[in-house]
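DUF2892 domain-containing protein: C-alpha cells wanted.
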Amino acid sequence: MSTQTRNSSPAVSAPTCAMSGERGWPLERVLFAMGGTMGVASAALSAFVSPKFLLLTAFVGANQLLYVAVGECPASIVLQRVFKVQRQVAS
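Answer:
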C-alpha cells in the first residue's frame, strides 16, 4: 500500500467581489442566499411538519420586498453592522 496525502488539493480562497475587489460576498448576494435558503427550508418544513411554517416564508418574502422598495431590511442592517458585510459598489 502506498501512502497518500489526504488533502492534496490546493487551498481554496474566499471569493472576491468583482466590482469592489474586496474579499467575500457583497451584501446583495448574501441576502439572496439567506432568503433563498430560508424560503426553501420553510416551504419544506410546512410540507412535512406544520403548515404554520408558511408564515416564515411570508416573512422572508416581505423582507425581500422591503429591501427592494426601501434599500434596507432587518437582515441587511444586522449584516452590515455586526458582520461588516459591504454593499456592492456600482460601476
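The mean pLDDT is 83. Residues 62 and 89 are 25 Å apart (CA to CA).

Cheers.
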